[in-house]
Design a protein that fits this description.
Helix 1 (about 25-35) packs across helix 3. By secondary structure, this protein is an alpha+beta fold. The protein has one domain. Strand 2 and strand 3 form a beta hairpin. The protein has four helices and four strands.
Length: about 100
């Protein structure tokens, strides 16, 4: 299935000059994939997550990648984290994941 890197309104300052990076859905997924599970890491967790991280990192906004149902399940599982911000685009991302089949 296609997983699209949809642009969000979430931004982050990336240097002291005030330059900002605009987040896409891949960035939101990467936050979850890089977050430590409550019960710690298993080797399988690491393998599954690193495989997805490699697929998602560095991709342009608006681009799509092919993911498997298993990879989608991993992204969904990793999206169930405690967020440090509250933003409507995190909710939109979650709803987007639910629509993917």
């Amino acid at each position: 299935m296609k997983f699209k890197n949809i642009e969000t309104e979430i931004t982050m300052q990336i240097n002291e000059q005030g330059d900002k990076k605009t987040f896409g859905y891949f960035d939101i997924a990467l936050i979850g994939l890089n977050s430590r599970p409550e019960d710690g890491w298993t080797v399988k967790d690491m393998k599954d997550r690193f495989k997805l991280i490699d697929k998602l990192e560095g991709k342009e906004l608006g681009k799509s990648i092919e993911i498997t149902e298993e990879e989608l399940a991993t992204i969904k599982k990793c999206n169930n984290i405690k967020w440090n911000i509250m933003h409507k685009d995190i909710i939109s991302f979650d709803e987007y994941l639910e629509k993917l089949k």
